[in-house]
Structure prediction request, 201 residues.
Amino acid sequence: MENSKKFFTTKNIVYLAVLSALLVVLNLLSSVFKIITSVNLTLVPIVIGALLLGLKGGAILGFISGLMTFIIGVTGADAFTHILFIDHPVLTFLTCTVKTTCAGALAGFVYSLFENKKKYLGTFVSSALAPIINTGLFILGALLMSDTLKANFVADGQTVMYFLIIVCAGVNFLIELAVNMVLAPAVFKVVDVINNRISRG
Prediction:
């Protein structure tokens, strides 16, 4: 209880509110404007939240992002998620929320290991880790729904694994990783400036 009180300070609540609003906007935009198929740009604010707020902040923002993805899928705005939801509602919910929650939590945890001595390196590692965890858990979750994938998405002669790794996740993962790595220096600078101002004030 005491730790919860320490985490939910006015400053942290403001950070969570701003980053959550950004997540909602990015999720809604991604359902309208697709890059390749469904590149997850929401990983950027999740990582920023993980760096600023640690494991708990990254997990909360990751869950919010995953929940938004699930809701968008349920409404039919994202056809892929909607089809999975029709056949596997619980697995679809868990896949959507667990992958981004873990990505945010682990990004925050890993950054904390570097924070005192090598913050710049920690920013790059955390920024790379988020899309790796997100994509890896997506593939694992989707494998549990192989029957639906085979019936609706996997072409003749393809395996489910090939579809998930090459067709579905491949290009998306590379773009997400590149975006996070390119933005890592800027993210580091923003977080560093914010923390310095807070420590001075």
About this structure: The longest helix spans residues 43-75. Residues 85 and 92 are 5 Å apart (CA to CA). DSSP finds nine helices and no strands in the chain.
